[in-house]
Amino acid sequence: MARITRSLDEAIAPIADGCSLAVPRETSGAAMAATRALIRRGVKRLHLVALPTSTLQADLLIGAGCIETLETSAVSLGEFGPAPRFTAAILGGTIEMRDATCPALHAQFQAAEKGVPFMPLRGLIGSDLLPHRPDWKVVDNPFGNNDPIVLLPALKPDVALFHAPMADREGNVYIGTQRELVAMAHAAQQTIVTVEEIHGANLLRDPLLAAGTLPGFYVEAVAVEPRGAWPLPLPDRYAIDAAHMAEYARLAATAEGFAQYLERYVYEKRAA
Amino acid sequence: MKSARPETFRDEELLADVICRLIGDARHVAVGAASPIPATAALLARERSGGKPFVSLLGSRAHTFFTDGARELFDCAGQGRIDVFFLSGGQIDGEGNINLVNVGDYERPKVRFPGSFGSAYLYYVVPRVILFRVGHSRRTLVPKVDFISAPGGSPDNVFRPGGPVALVTDRCLFDFDRARRRFRLVSVHPGHNLEEIIENTGFEFDRPSDVPVTPAPSADTLRLMRTVVAPMLAEVYPQFAQSVFGVALPLPTA
């Protein structure tokens, strides 16, 4: 059952060096305050799984040297251009990349949710992704006739980490329609959530809210971190900080600029 | 507002109009990441036909009906419930293969792109995929892609109800013959010409003896785009809505 922790650092303590960490796409609620705290703590050798894509969160962790392996379908800064530290790390060969495609990652989390070893997926055959993913296998559909199909192994991250609008005192977390956060929590060994605020009543008692709630049963720790997705957006709460993203894109274009960014916005723990 | 006088328009407006016509009669059009011009076209198609088709913009709260998270787009497509989708590529070749991964060798790339997104699935299962690429040059339209994120065609025994129908660039419109896996030039955009297209295209393509000019967007289309569609775009593509249509940027705390 989830604990409401006193501090962000206490909540993220289970994210150990070398662990596999699942994070969601930018528009679903990325735990950016927690990400900055991880960088300050100096986490190392993470296997980051971004379901199914990432933007600033992956780029920051890569640039800060926290990532050993990255498993995702795409990393960019969206309207703000390419992700500079991701690009530099791939060109420099400093991280191991496991290129995926969005529905493959969703299917791999779904397999883990169901406790089955794999999930089949259409597409993929003839893509160069397949020969670079020895863990993905082509079989003949046992219910068909000469019908090749790809099987993808279940993906069980050590920890899932995301930011959500609110949790209650029991650790139930309101995620709204961002259902992939539920899939992440079901699949992961432990789930750590930061929230904007604590909701006074039990979320599961209200049938309208309960439908969009991840039960605290699946949650290890909750930390209250207002504007915890900043500078990224939180659905229905706040938009992306465009000026900040433009500044990041400009600074992170060089290693020196990125170091300045870390100094200014991560190590000094400046608020939004 | 009917006017016979040609209005001035931006390239983005012409391209959105071209894509809007390609969308044609569809029940459900979905638009993926980093696709502001296709998003403009999809919303325009909905406005021009009085609310049909359903439009799903990835990353939007206002313009999507999905409630099952990020995976619903892919599950919906897998069921055959998405008729039109849009893909692009760092490289696109003459057989319709698209590359969203890298230039050079995968282990030692010279250039890295963001990654394949949902292409290695959606290209196979969405019946009508419209390819879209600005920056039409021999660097982007190549004889053979360095990495196949998703192939333009598949062997007969591979499940493949979907694939490319057209390629829209900033210079011209091609359609795609799936049986022959080959592009055919349909029209050249105003201000461009055939010689320039041949010179800047890295792959061979078919063409009619007389190549028409792409029609300019009508005054009514331009009005719809600027007054109705542009404010909708600002939710997902604020930078684009501002630079192309002059829509004010939302406040970060909105």
- Cα Rg of chain B: 18 Å
Per CATH, the architecture of the largest domain in chain A is 3-Layer(aba) Sandwich
Uncertain segments of chain A are: none
CATH structural fold name of chain B = Glutaconate Coenzyme A-transferase
Count of helical regions of chain B: 7
Shape of chain B: globular
CATH H level of chain B: which superfamily?
A: Glutaconate Coenzyme A-transferase
Report the strand count of chain A.
13
Order of helices and strands of chain A: EHEHHEHEHEHEEEEEHEHEEHH
What distance separates the N and C termini of chain A? 31 Å
List the strand order in the largest sheet of chain B.
Answer: 3-8-10-11-12
The Rg value of chain A, from CA coordinates, equals 19 Å
Domains counted in the coordinates of chain B: how many? 1
Largest sheet of chain B: 5 strands, mixed
- Strand segment count of chain B: 12
- Structurally, the number of domains of chain A stands at 2
Q: What is the beta-strand fraction of chain B?
A: 15-25%
**CATH superfamily of the largest domain in chain A, please?**
Glutaconate Coenzyme A-transferase
* CATH architecture tag of chain B: 3-Layer(aba) Sandwich
Distance between the termini of chain B: 34 Å
Can you put this structure into words, describing what you see?
The complex is a heterodimer of chains A (272) and B (254). Chain A folds into two domains: 3-103 and 155-267, Glutaconate Coenzyme A-transferase (3-Layer(aba) Sandwich); 118-153, no CATH class. In chain A, 31% of the residues lie in helices and 23% in strands. Chain A has helices at 8-11, 26-29, 32-41, 56-63, 84-92, 102-114, 180-187, 207-210, 242-251, 255-267; strands spanning 3-4, 20-24, 46-51, 67-72, 96-99, 118-121, 137-140, 148-153, 159-167, 173-174, 190-198, 213-214, 221-224. The radius of gyration of chain A is 19 Å and the shape is globular. Chain B is of the alpha/beta class. Chain B has one domain: Glutaconate Coenzyme A-transferase, CATH 3.40.1080.10. Chain B has seven helices and twelve strands. Chain B has helices at residues 11-23, 36-48, 71-78, 119-125, 194-200, 219-233, 238-245, and strands at 28-31, 54-57, 84-87, 91-93, 98-99, 102-104, 109-112, 128-133, 141-142, 164-169, 172-177, 182-188. In chain B, the strands form four sheets. Chain B has a five-stranded mixed sheet, with helices on both faces. Chain B is globular, with a radius of gyration of 18 Å. At the A-B interface, α5, α6, α7 and α9 of A face α3, β7, α4 and α7 of B.
